[in-house]
Amino acid sequence: MQSFDDLELRPELVEALAGEGIEVPTAIQREAIPLVRRGRSVLLEGGPGGGIFLAYSAGILESLESEGTAPRALILAASRDEVEGLALSLARLATSTGHRVAALDLPWPLPEHADLLLATPEALRRGVEAARVKLDGVRCVVGDGLGRMRAAGMITPLEAVLSAVPQDAQRIFTSLPVTTEDRRFIDAHTHRAVLLPSDAGAESDTASPHRGEVRYRVRSRDEESEVAEMVTDLLDADHDHVLLFFRSDDRAADVGDILGLRGYAVGPPGDRDVPVWLGVDALEARSAVQAASDENISVASVSIDVPADADTLDRRHSKTTSSGVLVGPRELAHLRKVSREAGYSLKTAPVETPAHVMDDVSRHLARVRETLEDHDLTPHVLLLEPLFQEWSPQEVAGALSHLVRAGTGEAQGAGGGADAPSGRSGGTARPPAWVRLFLSIGERDQVRPGDLVGAITGEAEIEGSQVGRIEIRDTFSRVDVEESVAGRVIRALNGTTLRGRSVRADYDREDRTRGVRGRESRGGKGRGDR
Fold it and tell me: At 487, which CATH number?
């Protein structure tokens, strides 16, 4: 199958896809769309960058009736930003099929009357509890990104939503990678879900041969500036031509126009009179690159749109002297997957650190080393474990380092350093006092630290920073929380259900008297004083 017409999508939807520059389905779309259209429950192994959104949304739009109690379909994602992005993408397609799309708790009118409603699990749960949203007419539920939901503490509200929709509703989940936890979740909440792609999770008897190295750069500002900077760097590095790859001719034309305005001469692959080549068909571009290589002409290649699969990555980058990918933060997991499958090692593109921030960087690294040497970090490692299933430890550490430095006024380029003000009034804030709570759920119930953090923050409506050390035993757990919110957490958790078990919460034995004193005085040792 080489087109969406071959998948028997309605002509107006095919036309809408073409208007978005999407004309050839990816492998996962060819497998998933027919099954989704027939109402099958599926688990899709994939993430942003691999066409996973269209793999389920096209099938839903094709089969979903717009008549009946709204909403008819739910699409749930881990964060408001994800919800907003998915809703905008879906709305552009839904105009062709006559369906109405809206996002809950975002600036979309009358979301409760939309055919397809997008939300975070927590926002939807609140909407249902407030009788704002009714789920009686739901025929399809999508959980987009189980790993991201787990990391965000959204699994518990997701389970609450799934228990509230009709039992015969179609259930679609995506995850990358598909973990043992994901499989247990699917088994508990679906009936005979199909895992796609059909070879997902299959272990190859032989490792892919090493074919080369691809460097990636995470998109951090407007795309036009990023592309122009990469082109300049590669041409300055003595490459004769830079070949940019795009998913469609329209995308190539748009970026080519911007580069032309900046003074770059652009043309098709093989045009020796221009430094920048714009490519869409990787096989055609390979011929031009091979011809240039035979004449000792150096060509660097950059995928501006992340390759959809391993074959595309190999076709784009196997013949060039230098290879790179401009990737969105949420596309990294997909890029790692296809690079591994294609036999390429993935490296970050080198970034020159300005000299004026090096002293600040050194001070920051010294504090990190001190923390590694002097503190027991096991509870924090356990808490972050779900993130390690999607991101490398280096990337998780980098994200945490960024949050710490940004939160203390130490971000690079801000002019601050170790002595920069934190932005808080009144000088150094007094560290909060902590108490330990007892929860009647433990390892035997397959509960994880992320589940507890999600339940506590979601039910009690507190910040994740107000939850401290977590200790999970066989039949119970102990969790440290800020003393000022302990009573609220206990009241919120008692009687709730987690992993199918009713939860009982109380002060831990050694902190029960302290919990009573906490209502009279806010004294006591903070976590940093113990």
Answer: 3.30.70.330
What's the domain count of the chain? 3
For residue 342, what are the domain limits?
A: 212-348
pLDDT for residue 136: 94
Reply yes or no on whether the pLDDT at 159 is more than 70. Answer: yes
Alpha helix segments (H runs only) across 209-301 = 223-236, 249-261, 282-294
SS3 of 264, please? Answer: coil
Phi, psi of 344 (to 5 degrees): -110, 140
More confident call, 366 vs 174: 174
* Residue 129 falls inside a structural domain: yes
DSSP 8-class letter at 506 = E
d(CA 479, CA 489): 11
Sorted by sequence, the CB contacts under 8 Å of residue 350 that are 6+ apart come out as 215
In a domain, 359, yes or no: no
Using 50, 70 and 90 to split pLDDT, how confident is the model at 83?
Answer: very high
Q: Strand 42-45 and strand 194-196: pairing?
A: parallel
Give residue 156's pLDDT band: very low, low, confident or very high (50, 70, 90).
very high
Q: How far apart are CA 441 and CA 470, in angstroms?
A: 12
Residue 297 makes CB contacts below 8 A (sequence gap 6+) with 240, 241, 272
Residues 457 and 518 occupy one common structural domain: yes
- Read off the pLDDT band of 293 (50, 70, 90): very high
In this structure, the strands spanning 116-119 and 194-196 are unpaired
Q: Are 456 and 494 in contact (CB under 8 A)?
A: no
* Same domain membership, residue 226 and residue 176: no
CA dist 288 and 299 (Å) reads: 10
Question: In this structure, what CATH number is given to the domain that contains residue 272?
Answer: 3.40.50.300
Confidence of residue 424 (pLDDT cuts 50, 70, 90): very low
DSSP structure class, residue 433: B
Do both 54 and 142 map to the same domain? Answer: yes
**H/E run at residue 330:** none
417 or 59: which leads in pLDDT:
59
Amino acid present at 210: H
Q: What's the helix, strand, coil split of the chain in %, to 5? A: 45, 15, 40
Domain assignment of residue 115, yes or no: yes
Q: Whole-angstrom Cα distance, residue 285 to residue 269?
A: 6
Q: What is the dihedral of CA 278, 284, 285, 287, to 10 degrees?
A: -150
